[in-house]
Amino acid sequence: TEELLRRSDKMSLIGQLAAGVAHEIRNPLTTLKGFMQFLHQGAANKKEYYDIMMSELERIELITTEMLVLAKPHFIHYQPKSIENIIKSVITLIETQAIINNIQFVVAMEKHLPLVLCEENQLKQSFINLLKNAMEAMPDGGQINIQLFSVGDKAVRVLFHDRGHGIPQDALARLGEPFFTTKEKGTGLGIMITNKIIEDHHGQFVVESKVGEGTVVSVTLPST
Ligand code: ADP
Ligand code: MG
């Protein structure tokens, strides 16, 4: 029965996801169809239409790209990697965006951290999702702290601490639900994907938040 339960849980999640994706993609498609018609009728403000169409296409692209992360590659190669290097390269990837938004990353890490068995790109993807959320929660900029330390001799923990607007209780309960977003241009897929990746790594993912004070996301991963 447990296996059955687990399977039916999975099915309903897939059903939810499929419905969500279809819905999220249908909206921009409807818009695109409408504008195609305007263009066909010889509309005057072509440039304006073009910009809207482009941004709708980009939205479809973003949603499909995020969904692809969920489709597992044939071979997931878990390899021992330095979490320190993964964090550093993630910071390099989003640094330009951080500078534009007046955000500083402050990294503190223990020396001689053990390696983590992981699929590096997936872990990077999940950290990027978390740091993007942290930045988006601080529209006026500020400091984001990243801490790395070992927990016992079997795990490594990464904390992402922002001083953004925080997450109210009701939203906290819905975190990780597909397409749950409070942002005008959000996809509501980031946390769900991050959750899935950490789960695949047999890790733990915990979010603590206080409205008006900020959010701490903790990721704990088994180490070698
Ligand atoms: P998206 O970023 O596209 O909205 P996510 O799944 O990444 O989707 O996040 C879902 C929601 O959780 C966000 O819309 C936001 O309301 C909330 N959230 C996540 N991380 C944070 C954070 N660090 N600070 C404040 N709110 C957050
Ligand atoms: Mg996000």
3D architecture notes:
The protein is of the alpha+beta class and 224 residues long. Helix content is 51%, strand content 21%. The chain has a five-stranded mixed sheet. A hairpin with a 3-residue loop joins strand 4 and strand 5. The longest helix is centred in the N-terminal third of the chain and has 39 residues. The two termini are 34 Å apart. The mean pLDDT is 89. The site of adenosine-5'-diphosphate has 23 residues, from helix 4 and helix 6.
What key attributes describe this structure?
single chain, five-stranded mixed β-sheet, globular, alpha+beta, 6 helices, 224 residues, histidine kinase
Helix-strand layout with pairing:
Elements: H1 2-40, H2 46-68, E1 79-81, H3 83-100, E2 103-109, E3 116-118, H4 120-136, E4 142-151, E5 155-162, H5 169-174, H6 190-200, E6 204-210, E7 214-222
Parallel strand pairs: 2-4
Antiparallel strand pairs: 1-3, 4-5, 5-7, 6-7
The structure holds adenosine-5'-diphosphate and magnesium ion (MG).
